């Protein structure tokens, strides 16, 4: 293996490549190896630094190494794992093997030769005889360097440039050396050297390393100034380095510095002088170099420790700078000793041959001293390392504390941020809740508005339909009457006129005829008399003619006169004939007039026929309108149901009864929207004492589908529920029940004379009658059941059968109908029958009340009206049930302070009311087909098909106006609110076609 490889090994250890201007020192001279035995070699056993960080391997503490460039690198030097040989031991090796040493070419005096040989052998391991195996030398070196790079065991001697340079530097140092040595010492050294050469022992290599060429960073820690002084090393000069390992990098150099602190009390000059084997001389550098070169050529090529230096011309010359301070190390072959003890001894030893035991004794002492020194050096190094480590740790702690402070600040900031975020989240949550509440209010408002609108629409539609029908009917009858009266009038007028005309005509014609006949008769009589007179006259005349022929003339004259008279008479006759003709014409005209009059009557009858036809058309239109009305009735029912669905299949209304004259201390119950919607009721709660001792009262507001104040009447209440009653007629199961504490007005609302039951049955009766014209025929069957202490009683049965006759409730699950066994059902064939039913029920309850005090308050009563309708025209059939329930008082057990039978009653009431609440709750929350606990109480079991999906439910929550009942009032209103918030599925009409 060559030197280059060895150098590579070193570079790996340090982790730092040699600087470029130091690259020519690629191989450390063997002589330098010794210097590193105690310091550098041990350090070289450290693992190489990772990157720029330098971690001291010898220190057990995990010290963080600062990577800051201005911080000094901390290097700790561990205790070498191996036991380093002392110089004496090393020296003993060649000494003991002296026989194996090459023969000295020159004769040397035995005393001097032995002294020099021993001295050299004791001083250095370089004094290895030629015939010592390379392996042996390598072992010795490895023993000295510990875990450091192994000395190559190649057969050829490494020819590193550094070695050459070392040789050259050494020779140069001879020129520049300013060593203050005495002449005697100089002489002694020269002599010793010469003697050593003669003995065949390689003198020590001199390595000269310019300080600048080491490329030490300026900020690298420098050795204390006192150290060179204590070493007594001049600032200029060349010193010998005994170590084969060169200072190959600045890091190495820095590591050396602390190590060199310890031997500060070593006097180099004294040591050198005492050894006498070597000396420094500025003037003898070249000569020594040549001597060393000669030494090399004198058969020592195979010994790496005896590597000869080359001539100056062969090695690169570093630029000499007068100002450059050269760092010089002198190898200490021996442990230092005080001049007082060592110098006389050595002087004496040099001059006189001393016995071997002295030498041995001396060697032992040296060995001990060396060990002691190494130990101290190690301890000091360790202490230094620890100090540095502590400093680093402290700085690290400071850093960490600063980081911790920073983190605490950050943490505080984060905590405050977290608080902010939490408060923000809280406000967002509150906002969300407010929005939800607002939305629910808005949704309720919208729903309410929609319901109102639908109600309005429906009312308007109904009113419009009624009005139209009325108007149509009125118009029809009016037109008919008008037409009939007009026709009658016309006919009468015509008849009268005709009769009058006929009468007049006949009278006129008769008068005219009689007149004419009389005239004719008069004229005929007159003409006949005249004719007779004329004939008499003619006879007379003829006689007279005869007689008077003469007279004829006379007569002729007379005749003429007569003729003229005749003409006159004829004229008169013509005139009479003309008059007769005129009369005939008048009669004819009269006759024509009569005819005309007769023809006018036909036109009138034609007009009458037209009118009749129009009347028929109007009647047909009315028929069509009736058909349309029937269709609209069906549509109305459908729309009505949709309206009911929109209103919700469970509706809750509240009624506050008025306070009686005997009652005082009313509760503060207000109706905020009484003027508008009448859907809210506000109750001022009981006063409570706050923590501050103040009396505070809370106002509780509840909203329902409708709220009736104390002034409301049963008629007003019924108007709101009449639509549900109508639904029962249309084929729905309807359940209306009154809930509230005793005395809150349940019975008054439900069963009083003008209560819901009589009103409902009356409306049903009226409506059934009205629907008859639309083809509907209804059968109505009523029952009245009491649920007392979880048993059914028939309130329409005989009073003596109460609590004895067992009434059974059977359900037809297929038809979803309820049948009552052993219960009387009364056919409602008129409104009066309802009164009878109510009377019977009331009587029975009164009888029962004698058995159990206040029984009416302690039992539920259910009026069941079954309505079955059929339409012959459309073929439809509807089956609906109207259940009107007056519940028992809802006061709480602890409040009623009941005992004994009352306690049982109260428990049963509470149970059934609680079950009713459960059923409503289950209907509101459960999915279709899910279990609803109807069977948990007799009441809910009885109303199974009237509560739930197939029914429409309305609950009246009755409220007492008294302050004493305030707590019960609030409880009732809460329960009602819960029911109001329940949505029951869509109701289904029970109709068949
Ligand atoms: N709206 C009202 N107008 C006038 N008087 C009323 C009204 N409501 C109730 N009353 C009267 O209050 C009294 C108690 O009413 P009612 O008997 O109806 O109460 P209730 O709740 O049915 O009690 P119970 O549970 O004992 O049957 C009766 O005298 C009744 O006439």
Automatic annotation (TrEMBL):
Binding site for ATP: 740-747
Record bears the keyword Nucleotidyltransferase: no
The species this protein was found in: Neocucurbitaria cava
Main location: cytoplasm
Regions of compositional bias (Polar residues) in chain numbering: 243-253
Record bears the keyword NAD: no
GO biological process per UniProt: microtubule-based movement; mitotic spindle assembly
Keywords assigned by UniProt, alphabetized: ATP-binding, Coiled coil, Cytoplasm, Cytoskeleton, Microtubule, Motor protein, Nucleotide-binding
Coiled-coil residue windows: 383-417, 538-565, 608-649
Gene that this sequence comes from: KAR3
Domain called Kinesin motor: residue spans: 649-982
Low complexity biased stretches: 138-148
Locations listed in the record: Cytoplasm, Cytoskeleton
Protein name: Kinesin-like protein
Family classification: Belongs to the TRAFAC class myosin-kinesin ATPase superfamily. Kinesin family. KIN-14 subfamily.
């Amino acid at each position: 293996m060559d030197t280059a490889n060895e150098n590579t090994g070193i570079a790996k250890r340090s982790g730092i490549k040699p600087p470029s201007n130091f690259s020519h020192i690629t191989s450390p001279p063997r002589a330098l190896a010794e210097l590193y035995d105690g310091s550098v070699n041990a350090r070289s056993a450290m693992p190489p630094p990772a990157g720029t960080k330098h971690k001291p391997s010898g220190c057990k503490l995990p010290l963080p190494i600062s990577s800051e460039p201005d911080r000094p690198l901390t290097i700790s030097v561990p205790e070498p794992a191996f036991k380093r040989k002392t110089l004496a031991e090393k020296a003993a090796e060649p000494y003991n093997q002296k026989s194996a040493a090459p023969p000295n070419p020159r004769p040397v005096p035995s005393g001097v030769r032995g002294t020099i040989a021993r001295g050299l052998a004791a001083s250095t391991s370089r004094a290895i005889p030629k015939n010592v195996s390379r392996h042996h030398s390598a072992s010795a070196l490895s023993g000295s360097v510990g875990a450091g790079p192994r000395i190559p065991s190649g057969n050829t001697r490494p020819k590193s440039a550094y070695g050459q340079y070392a040789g050259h530097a050494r020779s140069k140092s001879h020129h520049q050396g300013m060593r203050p040595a005495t002449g005697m010492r100089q002489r002694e050294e020269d002599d010793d050297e010469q003697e050593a050469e003669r003995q065949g022992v390689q003198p020590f290599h001199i390595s000269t390393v310019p300080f600048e060429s080491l490329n030490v960073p300026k900020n690298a820690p420098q050795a204390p100034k006192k150290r060179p002084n204590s070493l007594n090393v001049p600032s200029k000069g060349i010193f010998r380095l005994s170590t084969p390992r060169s200072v190959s990098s600045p890091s190495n150099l820095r590591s050396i510095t602390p190590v060199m602190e310890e031997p500060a009390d070593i006097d180099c000059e004294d040591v050198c002088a005492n050894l006498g084997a070597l000396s420094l001389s500025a003037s003898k550098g070249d000569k020594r170099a040549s001597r060393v070169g000669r030494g090399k050529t004198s058969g020592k090529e195979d010994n790496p420790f005896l590597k000869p230096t080359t001539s100056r011309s062969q090695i690169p010359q570093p630029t000499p700078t007068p100002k450059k301070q050269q760092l010089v190390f002198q190898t200490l072959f021996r442990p230092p000793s005080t001049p007082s003890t060592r110098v006389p001894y050595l002087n004496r030893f040099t001059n006189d041959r001393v016995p071997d035991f002295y030498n041995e004794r001396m060697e032992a002492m040296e060995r001990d001293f060396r060990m002691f020194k190494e130990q101290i050096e190690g301890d000091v190094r360790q202490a230094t390392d620890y100090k540095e480590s502590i400093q680093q740790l402290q700085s690290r702690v400071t850093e960490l504390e600063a980081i911790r402070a920073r983190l605490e600040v950050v943490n505080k900031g984060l905590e405050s941020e977290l608080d902010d975020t939490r408060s923000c989240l809280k406000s967002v949550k509150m906002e969300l809740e407010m929005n939800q509440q607002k939305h629910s209010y808005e949704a309720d408002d919208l729903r309410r508005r929609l319901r109102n609108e639908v109600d309005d629409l429906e009312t308007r539609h109904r009113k419009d339909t009624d009005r139209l029908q009325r108007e149509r009917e009125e118009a029809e009858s009016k037109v008919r009457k008008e037409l009939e009266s007009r026709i009658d009038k016309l006919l009468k007028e015509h008849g009268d006129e005709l009769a009058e005309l006929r009468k007049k005509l006949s009278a006129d014609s008769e008068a005219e005829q009689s007149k004419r006949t009389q005239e004719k008769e008069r004229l005929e009589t007159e003409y006949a008399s005249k004719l007779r007179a004329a004939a008499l006259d003619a006879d007379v005349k003829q006689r007279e003619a005869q007689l008077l022929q003469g007279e004829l003339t006379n007569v002729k004259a007379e005749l003429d006169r007569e003729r003229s008279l005749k003409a006159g008479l004829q004229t008169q006759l013509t005139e009479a004939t003309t008059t007769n003709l005129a009369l005939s014409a008048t009669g004819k005209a009269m006759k024509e007039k009569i005819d005309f009059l007769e023809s006018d009557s036909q036109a009138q009858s034609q007009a009458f026929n037209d009118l009749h036809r129009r009347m028929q058309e109007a009647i047909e239109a009315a028929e069509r309108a009736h058909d349309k009305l029937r269709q609209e009735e069906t549509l109305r029912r459908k729309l009505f149901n949709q309206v009911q669905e929109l209103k919700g299949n469970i509706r809750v209304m509240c009624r506050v009864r008025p306070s009686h004259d005997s009652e005082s201390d009313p509760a503060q119950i207000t109706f905020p929207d009484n003027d508008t919607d009448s859907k809210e009721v506000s109750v001022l709660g009981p006063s409570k004492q706050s923590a501050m001792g103040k009396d505070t009262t809370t106002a509780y507001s509840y909203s329902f589908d409708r709220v009736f104040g104390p002034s409301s009447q049963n008629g007003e209440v019924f108007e709101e529920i009449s639509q549900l009653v109508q639904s029962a007629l249309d084929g729905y199961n309807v359940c209306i029940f009154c809930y509230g504490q005793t005395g809150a007005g349940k019975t008054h609302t439900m069963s009083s004379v003008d209560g819901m039951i009589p009103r409902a049955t009356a409306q049903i009766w009226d409506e059934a009658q009205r629907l008859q014209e639309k083809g509907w025929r209804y059968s109505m069957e009523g029952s009245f059941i009491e649920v007392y202490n979880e048993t059914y009683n028939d309130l329409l049965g005989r009073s003596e059968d109460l609590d004895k006759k067992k009434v059974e409730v059977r359900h037809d699950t297929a038809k979803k109908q309820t049948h009552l066994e052993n219960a009387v059902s009364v056919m409602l064939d008129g409104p009066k029958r309802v009164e009878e039913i109510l009377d019977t029920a009331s009587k029975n309850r009164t009888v029962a009340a004698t058995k159990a005090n206040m029984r009416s308050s302690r039992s539920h009563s259910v009026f069941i009206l079954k309505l079955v309708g059929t339409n012959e025209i459309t073929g439809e059939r509807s089956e609906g049930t109207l259940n009107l329930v007056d519940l028992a008082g809802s006061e709480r057990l602890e409040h009623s302070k009941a005992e004994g039978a009352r306690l049982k009653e109260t428990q049963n009431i509470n149970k059934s009311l609680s079950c009713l609440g459960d059923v409503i709750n289950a209907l509101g929350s459960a999915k279709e087909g899910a279990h609803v606990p109807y069977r948990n109480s007799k009441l809910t079991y009885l109303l199974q098909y009237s509560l739930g999906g197939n029914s429409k439910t309305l609950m009246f929550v009755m409220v007492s106006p008294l302050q004493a009942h305030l707590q019960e009032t609030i409880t009732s209103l809460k329960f009602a609110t819960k029911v109001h918030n329940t949505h029951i599925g869509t109701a289904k009409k029970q109709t068949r076609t």
